[in-house]
Write a structure and sequence with these properties.
heterotrimer; A alpha+beta; B alpha/beta; C alpha/beta; B: alpha/beta; FAD/NAD(P)-binding domain; 2 domains; five-stranded parallel sheet; about 30% helix; globular; C: alpha/beta; D-Amino Acid Oxidase, Chain A, domain 2; six-stranded mixed sheet; 10 helices; about 25% strand
Chain lengths: ~250, ~350, ~375
Amino acid sequence: MLEKTGVATEQDLARVTPSKERRAKGPVAVIECFQRIPCNPCQTACKTGAIKEFKDINDTPEIDHDACTGCGLCVSSCPGLSIVVVDETYSEEEALVKIPYEFLPLPEAGSFVTGLDREGKPVCRAKVVKVLNTKSMDRTPVVSLAVPKDMSMTVRFIKLNDYFSDNTIVCRCEELTMGELRELIRKGYNTVDEIKRISRAGMGPCQGRTCRQLIMQEIAAATGTKMADLTVSTYRPPVKPVKLGTIAGGEHGE
Amino acid sequence: MRTTEIAIIGGGPAGLRAAISAASMGAKVTIIERNENLGGQLVKQTHMFFGSQKQYASTRGIDIAEILLKDLDKYKDRIEIMTNATVLSIFEDGVISIEQDDKYLKIKPQSVIVTTGASEKFLAFPNNDLPGIYGAGAVQTLMNVHGVAPGRSVVMVGAGNIGLIVSYQLMQAGIEVKAILDASPRIGGYLVHASKIRRMGIPILTSHTVKYAHGTDKLQKVTICQLDEKFQQIPGTERDIETDVLCISVGLSPLTELLWQAGCNMKYIPELGGHVPVRDKDLQTSIKGVYVAGDVAGVEEASSAMVEGRLAGLCAAKALGHATADFEELHNDCIEQLNSLRSGHVGEKIRKGLEQVAM
Amino acid sequence: MNKTASVVIIGGGISGASIAYNLAKKGVKDIIVVEKKFLTSGSTGRCGAGIRMQWGTEMNCRLSKFSTEFYETANEVLEYEGDIEFKQGGYLIVAATEKEDEQFKKNVALQNSLGIPTVYLTPKEAKKIIPHMDETKIISATFCQKDGHLNPFHTTQAFANAAERLGVKFMKYTEVTGIKVENGKVVGVQTDKGFISTPVVVNAAGGYSKQIGEMAGVDIPVYAERHQILVTEPVNQMQDPMYMGFALNVYIQQTPHGSFIMGRSGENEPRDLRITSSWDFTEKMAKDACTLLPMLKDLRVVRQWAGLYTMSPDRQPIYSKAGNVEGFYMSTGFSGHGFMLGPVTGVVMSEMILGEKPSLPIEKLGLDRFEKGELLFEPSVV
């Protein structure tokens, strides 16, 4: 129960969730405001008329999801931070969730964070796609997160610490992170050789001594393949970096 | 180009034993060792070895190295030793290239015994590159070779034999071990090692892993958490331990780069630590004249590495025509010793692994 | 599982990806690219990935000019989400013999007449472009700023992604085991994953194109020769252009990533599809690099590898249909230049397959030139 726990129930959410069909069409605002309080900035901010005029300032907002363009102006205007924009057309596997975020430091675009649900439980990894912080937002920046599509109606906050280790460096020579590696595997690069060629991981001075095993483990986990069945990338000379001058000098040195 | 009958790559326990046995048969041998001194990891081992008398049981590793070097000295006219010499490649025609003191050398051996050992596996977690996070081998080198304490307190990840032994050695050196973690629900190392640590009050936390390292320019604390039976982290079980050293000992993987380069047929055998070469009963790989012994052929104890080295040395020398009357006897003795070291419950994993790579 | 396609392209390198893209762009449906391993796993992923317009024959100049101009806008044209990393740092091609110097003067005149902005340089002028070179080792040089280097993996992926968006199917880890010909016509391709019925097969199999030709009963006079390369650790940018010499038998360049890539031709390289490494290459390469560009001696080699050049008798590509098998096309024999010609390969092959008027006079590059003895020797190759 919302009143007891502060967490919206399924019934509460059912009333405000845009239909599946509507979500499949593009960005749309989701207003999770359930209590009658004297407040209407969302309605004032809405330029498309999707959020209907309030008869009484205590009304809870009513939104016509079909009229909503998902512009997001209401997101940073809501004093209760109860509005997010969800865009399920972002990519084949991912949805974009735009949340208000009033903490410092702000996350960096491109980094990975932990997606939290309405109870603050870590539920998935989320990639920070954009951080918008204009003057008109008046210190309520909006963070755009790419999350797995089935998490679009679940992720409502983030933790900058990286529960799913996405910012962990896998290849130290070429600075490939776990998050980037996972993204590559998701795109279908699922052998060490393919990942090496497209990302350079394993091409640095250590020639994969540290990262090869980690990359293989991650591929195995992500694709459900046994380690024994993975193709191994080729090993080539030399085992450790050696100066051109040393090779040229041969037995006599440089 | 230099030549030799048998090149032995790596001067650890397996390599030294291989050199001694091949030279004792009459072969001309060249040992190529990357470090300044021979002995490999033996010189870091201040504890008494298991096994039987034939494998120097109850002698400390560091003293075993001395014994091997003395044996080596008996055949010094047939054994060439190259130290500070890293083998860079084994080429298609069997030529080996070496870097030694900024010089580039090539040797064409008739056979090669690869005894390169193993390297430590790594763990992926945020900030795993902070100073203060070491592999167990590095901690042993600091402590037991250079006499330097790695820090004031240590959290050990890994309760296999190496994790347990290094924890014990850390305590001996007066460094506080705060906890030993292991992702597995069971302690992997010998239980006698575990018990001697537990009785010092050090907790061994099975089904636990390190989740996060904290610190700005060096390690200050680690967040650990519990794992479920599928090795997934259980949210809400996180807790912090303040420490300036995190020591990672999550297993070894065979150092097989040269075997891959040589074109050996390799198989992934988790029981043996990763990819290892397929080999026959003489420890010859799928490439004629390329033999293996020790951890590179499958991660085991130093005692079996030494017996394997002896076996590979005998067989490589025999194949080059250095026969002695007692070859069969010596060969059988090696096989018997290996069988006995691998018998029983703890050898089960090794036996299972070896079955899959027998040629 | 058995399939049907309108065109089957054999080979997932730059040529196959580019041909697929160009056919699909012209509206061809049901194109399948069959690749034995993964995209770029063959010669494309092993090449030096340079591109130059400085050639000794008009044909090669025009082919490479077409490709260079395409690569300049490829990120946008192919709508690639990544970057093909095209860096036009130029090629400095050095002459080490009088004969070469004479040839270079002719080359520059030819290139300029075709709108390629090459300049002829004295050793001193050349040293201004690559200050760490030993200019006493050369007689003269030519330089074209528009030549350059790309990332072969991203470039191929860019073509492949664009082709996929147009409906092309890429079958990875699928090996062609036979080509079915009935009554002199191609009817399908047998793979280890099933049979594909198709009236058109394009052989873009690089080092394996001779074997693919044999499967259809087409004799292609090419052979695969091993070529080796080594790469150093990355360092700060110090050399914009490629350094290349034909008599010196060498090419050395710094990639945008910072590593130096260098290669040379071996005297007795195997022709049996082997791509192992030899010590002979490492040593000669290191000696050449230290002699010609002495500052490189402190750079550390991290890896050497090998790939296959598909050599044609006159070192020029073969863009052709088979005379004896209808529906069998080939783009092969690039002799080490298949990557740079990728864009033009896709255009001219798609035109040939669709019976369109060719954008460039490639009829001279047909298979029949070897029977007629009308070879077009390219003098400027490493």
